[in-house]
Amino acid sequence: MTISKKLIFALIVLLSAGGHRAYAGSGGSDYSLIGIGDIRYTPGARAAGMGYTGIGLASPQYVNGLSPATWSTINRTRLEATVLYEGFNSSDGDRSRYLAHGNFYGALFAIPISPTNGIVLAGGFLPYSHVDYDTYTSDTFVSGTDTLDSQVHHVGTGGLNKAEVGLSWAPMPNIAIGASLNYLYGTLTNSLDQTTTTPGAAGGTVNNEQTMNGVNYTVGVLYTGLGTLSGALSPFSLGVVVTTRSNLHTTNQTNYLYTFEVDTTSQGVGRLAIPFSYGIGIGYQPGERWALAADYTAQPWGEADFQGSTPAGMIRDSYRLGAGVERTGARENTAAWLDRISYRLGFTYNQTYYVPNGVPINEWGVTAGMAFPLSGETRLNVAAEYASRGTTDNGLIKEKIFRLTLSLNISDLWFVRYEED
Amino acid sequence: MTDRRITGRLRRLAPPAGAALRTLSVLCALALGSCSEDPTEANALHANLPLANLVVRDTTILSRGTSTYRRYIPLDGRINLIGQTGNYTALAPIEFYPSYFVLNDTARVDSAKLKLHFVTWFGDSTGRLAFNVYRITRGWSQTRLTWDTVQAGFYESMVRGTSVTGAARDTQDVFIALDTAMVRQWLLTPTSTTDTKYGFILVPSAGCSIVRGFTAFDSDSLRSQPTLEVYTRSPTDPSRYNAGLDTFVGNIDNLNQNPQLIYMQAGVGYRATMDFDVSFIPRGAIINIATLQLQRDPSTSRFTRFTGDTAFSVQASLSPSDPTLLDGVLSTGRRVAGTANTFSADARRPVQLWLQGSNYGLTLRSSQADEYSSFDLMTFFNEQASDTLKRPRLKIIYSTQR
Questions:
Q1: Which of A25, A256, A337 has its CB closest to that of B17?
Q2: Whether B268 and B200 share a structural domain
Q3: CA torsion A350→A355→A359→A362, rounded to 10°?
Q4: Terminal C-alpha separation, chain B
Q5: What CA–CA distances, in Å, run from B34 to A38, A212, B44?
Q6: Percent of chain B scored above 70 by pLDDT?
Q7: CB contact under 8 A, B44 and A201
Q8: pTM for the complete prediction?
Q9: Domain limits at B196?
Q10: Where do the domains of chain A lie?
Q11: Exposed e or buried b for every residue in A194-221, given b needs 16+ CB within 10 A?
Q12: Residue of B nearest to A258 (CA)
């Protein structure tokens, strides 16, 4: 099978699998019960190894999920598919446990339409949020005549996905712009399973399923002409990206499972507004082998609208800072294999939008990554992150997080006209 | 690209690099796959997170309305009643399957005896059980026959047999001589629509002062089943038959006289309905406990020494107009241990059904074993009881989302 056939096949698989997210594993973070769960920041394995940076850093070898403007340098048809392993070592101060899951973490393709003009069509599927909590509470009800001991098993699953398609264009040599249309969709499921040990008493299960969908837009700009101001600035590039607010249409349905029968409420509709977000990034590429980047992104979650209100005291404005460096692998096939590997390091700080009971949950992490050349332009990217967030103070949870991102980046020449043609 | 292809490419890399990658892959797989736990209650974290939890509440409500109604029901129990005592009357139709008879158009029936195995009695044990046998004139079904369907022309007026016994012993075989002409007709090849093989009915006669119960065809013991013995001067005499249809129909008029009581009369079809207002409980609530509490009136309840269990059945009514339309799941009400007359029954399912919008109340009836095979009567105080502590009440513990 030629690379082209592989790419076509991979694209078909990508498009047909876009509606599905395969979950496997034992669980995730209990914080994900807040809002719409853990917000995913899915730039690709390269940026993940560099502290989740890349708004101001373009590369012809990678489909950057952070800004559509960065696609303008892509000169070969590319497809990058990613999987994520995420493990949470969580503690409440008394008990701890390690839960983990593996997910399909999205795929992006890019097809250069006119490389000389930076016109690249790109799209794909990415996760947007992730809910995966599993916890228990217990209660003893005592009245004047009766007692009821009960336990409730709380489980939440699901999340939002983002299907995006967009174009980049470089109207001038130093400026590239890009825009994408993003369709957000997904289902959040929360269930309460009550059991009781009191003789003669029964429990039941309440399953709430909230399905949502909506659209937003992302616009990005990449400027690489700082060298016109000063020669010392020529390795620098500057990127800005803005994603509009998205109003999601939601449908809500609750199923009740009792000992003897089942009940289902009629479907209710509502809305959920995800606030706009913006980011700015700086790239620094002093040569072909080195790249440095720093990003800042923010999202004012205080302006979110969950069915007409913002969960006061539960969410807040969020932002993320990141910085990273990459030593790019040698392109020559004659180079030593270890020299052909790209090496990445990074640091990230995330003020999450979680603020349970008024306590802010912040996350920091260190990242590292490598890109292994397989054949030609094909790369196997690995990024590992160790992060920590939360606190055991105020009855909350401290989490040590291990994330491992793997992506396969394959490419082919489509629509590219050679000079001899 | 498949894993196999990727692995193949890794193998084709420079030996040290390929080995390093393969080692890395194996280490990653081991590290990631081995240390994840399953979330359990034992390792669950106790965090102060904004979970959508449940709130448990309890309430006790009084019935807002009760009634007693009579609806004649098909009985078809394991014991059939025959006789009369006080205002109670029971008739028992029996049909031996015609297809089981050995047809013989020239047979001469010298005698035919019906054997019934009596096992219970109701009324005065010193009383007299007297009944006649009449030939049934039309086809019938033990699962549909009721008191009101045996009244008009169901049987002939000519007596085909007579029995007079007492209740000297609880268990007793009684033989009744049947009209040989009637039995001979059962052995004939059918040639006329006037030849009936629909069996006969036992009807209490004058002087009857007791009701007795005999075991039905579906008794486990062959010896206890109704048996027809026919003598036809054959070397194989007597021919015995013990398969067929049987049931009984019973009645008592004007039973529910006390406005402070509800009545559950077995063997006839008196049942009670009871209504509770649970509209204050939100839909979706989990009914953890729902206990119906009733006070029996011992002075009007009637049981016999053969009453196996002073229990009753509780079902949700499913129709505002048809009282026989009941939920298929029933619970059993029983006497509360340590009390003489306090009964309780699990009512979780009815209450859970009511929360979905249609609350047609409860139907209370004698337990199935009794209702189809006895004249037991249970009476309970209703919402008009002068002693408020004796009024029906429903205690509910439920959980709702906070």
A1: A337
A2: no
A3: -10
A4: 49
A5: 24, 35, 19
A6: 90
A7: no
A8: 0.81
A9: 79-247
A10: 3-412
A11: bbbebeebbbbbbbbbbbbbbebbbbbb
A12: B286
